[in-house]
Structure formats: C-alpha cells, structure tokens
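Risk register update: the risk of archive-format incompatibility is retired. Evidence:
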Amino acid sequence: MPKLQIGDKAPHLDKIISPEKLSGKKLVLYFYPKDNTPGCTAEACDLRDNYTELNNKNFVVAGISPDSKESHEKFSKKFELPFTLIPDTEKEILNAYGVWSEKSMYGKKYMGVVRQTFIINEKGIIEHIFEKVKTKEHTNQIFKELNIK
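Archived output:
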C-alpha cells in the first residue's frame, strides 16, 4: 500500500470517530505501540494534560494501538485519559495508515507500530503527519508545527 500523504483522504475515519464528534473539528489521530510503556504513557499523559487546550483550539483526540479493548480500558482508567483509545488487534487501521511496519531493536527485526500522528481536518483530509513524535511534549510540537498560538 502506498504511503499516505498530506492531502489524502483519511482511511477508516468512520471506524475511528463518529461524524458528530468530528463535526467542525480537526482530529489528532495518534498511533502508538503499546499501553503502559514509558514512551506511550508519556505521550498519552501529555495529550491528557493539554486536552482542554486542544479542545479549545478545535481538536479532538484519538489514539490507536494493537492492544485489546480491555487493555485500553485499564490504561485509560489508570491515567484518566479523556479521549478515545481504539483497539486495532487485527491491524486493519494500522496497515491502512502505514504504521504497522518492520522495526529493528538490537539487530533483531520484528513487526510493530511506528509512532506517528496524523492531523485530519473537518472534511476527513490529512493536513499534517508527524513522523518524529516528541512523546513528552507532543501537544507543543503540534501547536508549534501547525503555527497555532
């Protein structure tokens, strides 16, 4: 599958967020490897801590990983996450966004989630792609890159 680009229609948007929730807002759609890991927790907590500001600037937030619904519920409850976490155990959405990919650690190759964030506009079009996510300051990274004050 070809890599998604800015200007492309966001795949599977209906499975990610209801049209009513997106109505007039942009979506911060972030993909992360695993619940309860240090980087993923830092990213989720940064988005949580800045959730009101994101909402005030017309954004909704959703996260996706291959973890189960039960894992997401525990993670969300433990860290009081105010946004939706979507399980993608079948990796259908992960593959559609091109974030399920071969990775390498200590010389060992394996398949996993490449951490990325997509900004999707009100019409379901990809406006920006963050390929190098700063987990502890992701909200500021988004605002700075999109020139939002």
